[in-house]
Amino acid sequence: MKGVSPLISTVLLIGIVILMATVIGPWALRIATEASEGAKTDVERDMICRQTSYAFDSDYGNSGVVSNFSGTNGTVSVKIINTGSQNLYNFSFELLMQTPAGLKFIIHPDVNITADTQRTKANPMKPGYEWIIDADVTNVNDTWFLTEVKLINDVCPRISPSVEL
Questions:
Q1: Fewer beta carbons within 10 angstroms: which end of the chain, N or C?
Q2: Could you list the residue range(s) of the whole structural domain that residue 45 is in?
Q3: Are residues 79 and 133 in the same domain?
Q4: Domain tally, the chain
Q5: Residues in the chain, pLDDT under 50
Q6: Residues 73, 151: one domain?
């Protein structure tokens, strides 16, 4: 029995390699491009978060918070100071209430920041500035007690200070 000639086997091997490169090359390039773009986005987000910092102004109300609940509605106001170097905007609240049944989180849409105190990307809270943010709260009970307020921003949601009352 005779095998395939060395010349034919070399040509076949080169053809298989070219075919594999044609099929696998674009796929590998796409995977590498997506990975590098994802890493770039993560680095940019991390840099923004490193520049994001804000705190409650403890001279305002109770540790920076003023609240008023009656019936099934109420209001919450906080005064914050932008201590970082990043503009801040699109805030939201996360309230922790003590109820007779235990702790309960209250979030949007039951906590709705008033339009005139909300900061936007076009009109952000600049570094070094102080600002009071007001919110209307619905679907609560006047027997509930506010125990913690967390303020979240869209610039870097993982940097979200909170204060226990």
A1: N
A2: 1-50
A3: yes
A4: 2
A5: none
A6: yes
